[in-house]
Fold this protein.
Amino acid sequence: MRQLGGNTDSAQSASVRTSNVDTIRTSRNIPVGVSARHIHLCEEHLFALFGPGAKLNPIRDLPQPREFAAEERVTLVGPRLRAIENVRVLGPLRSFTQVEISRTDARILGMNPPVRQSGNLRD
């Protein structure tokens, strides 16, 4: 690195220091994921919605190991008969079906579902 009218050694030192700081900063990054509304299906519900023998068609992998977004989408309809269309199905299939929506989505649908971690079905 060459500077006009300056000390080359100190410029190189500053460059190295900055590079080390950047490395330290990136090593402290914590991955955070936010997922939009989606549904996890069991085999029974997959067949009921998409026909006997249906399979999920992966379109992209998700950050969670072995999980993927599928091509399939569903429409959620609440007790007020209001609908949210194009809700993505995530795979792989689970042993139970779980819909994950925001509080705003729940309000639109006219529901008051419990707030839980994905996969937690306990009351």
